[in-house]
Amino acid sequence: xxxxxxxxxxxxxxxxxxxxxxxxxxxxxxxxxxxxxxxxxxxxxxxxxxxxxxxxxxxxxxxxxxxxxxxxxxxxxxxxxxxxxxxxxxxxxxxxxxxxxxxxxxxxxxxxxxxxxxxxxxxxxxxxxxxxxxxxxxxxxxxxxxxxxxxxxxxxxxxxxxxxxxxxxxxxxxxxxxxxxxxxxxxxxxxxxxxxxxxxxxxxxxxxxxxxxxxxxxxxxxxxxxxxxxxxxxxxxxxxxxxxxxxxxxxxxxxxxxxxxxxxxxxxxxxxxxxxxxxxxxxxxxxxxxxxxxxxxxxxxxxxxxxxx
Length: 309
Prior knowledge:
By secondary structure, the protein is of the alpha/beta class. The chain has helices at residues 2-23, 39-47, 92-99, 119-126, 130-137, 147-156, 186-193, 215-222, 231-266, 270-275, 279-308, and strands spanning 30-33, 51-54, 56-59, 65-68, 77-83, 103-114, 160-168, 200-208.
C-alpha cells in the first residue's frame, strides 16, 4: 500500500515536470528532442503546432547514453528538449557545448533536474538508508543534482539559466511514517523542513548559450552554501569581521609610526624648510610616501579578506 502511494506521488511529480517543460516552449517552435522519453512529449508538442525531430540515442547496461546526430546534420532548432538527459552523459559540460551548435541564435535548451536534496531524500540520508542512497547515485552524474551544481555546470559550459520553475510538494511528516523520523531530533527536523529548497523535487529551466556570470565568480559564490542560515554561521561571520577590524587597526598604527618616522627624518620646522632649497622636493616626497602607505593599507586589507574567505 505504501509503495503504491509513493508510486503515485512520484508519478504526479513527474507529470508536472513534463507539463512545465512543454509550457516553456512557444507554439510553432522547431524542437529537437534528445531524450529516450521523447514519446512523453511528442503529442503535447504537436498539439502546440511544433515541428519535432528526435535524436538517435543508445543506452548501455550502466544507463550511460550515447548519441547519433547524423540525421540532424546541420539543422538549427529554436528548442532542444533534454528532459533529464544530462544526468546520464559522461561529460555534461562537453555535451552541452556540443549540442549548442544545433541551436538557432535565439534558441534555448530545456532541462529537467531532480533535486536529490529534497525533504524525503534528506531524511533518508540522515537515517543511513543504504539501499535508497545507492539507488539515487547509481549510474548517474551529479552535475544537475542541486541548484548550486546546475549553475556551476552551466557556467563551465559558457551558458546560463534564462527561466527557472520548481516542481514543489508540501510534505507532512506525520503522514509519512515510512520515513522513520523518530530517530531525529525536533531541532534537526525543523532545520530540514524549513529550508527553502526542501519541498522542491524537480527544477525545470531554460538555458541560453550566453554566460551571465564569470566562471571564477560562480566558483567563488558556490563556496558559500545557500543553506548556511544558522546561528553558527553568524558566529563565523562575526569572527571574520573582528579579525578584519583588528587587521585594519594594526595597519593604521603601522601607518602612523612610519609617517612619524618620516617626519622626524625630514624635520618639522617650517622655517627651516623654507630656507632649505629642497623644501619643495621634501613636500612632494611626503605626499608620495603617504599615498604609498594608504595604497599598502588597502592592498593588505584585500589580501586579508581573500585569505579569510
